Automatic annotation (TrEMBL):
Protein name as catalogued: Uncharacterized protein
Basic and acidic residues biased stretches: 83-92
Region called Disordered, residue ranges: 82-104
Matching InterPro entries: Ribbon_hlx_hlx (IPR010985)
Amino acid sequence: MSTTSIKLPDDIKQKANAAALDLGITPHAFMVEAIRKATLAAEKQAAFIADAQAARAATLQSGLGFAAADVHAHLRKRISKKINAEKKEKVSKPSKLAAKPWRA
């Protein structure tokens, strides 16, 4: 394990120490966990952006997409089906959405 030093403003250091004390851990463990969480969040955000860019590229290439109103109606049907299933009521399965050309 390597050592890294970090300079913190006094107010941040005091808050980190207080939070660590509240959690019953050392300030070092608190900062390591904070860095771990921030790293995971950054990785998830990067993956989300990469997925969005790939989806955009696929949509632009195919020229197919979904109208927002159709998606909203589909989701409402799915939610209604789930709620009614919990109430033991029968509801027909919503039809699968079909992508449509969106280019003019």
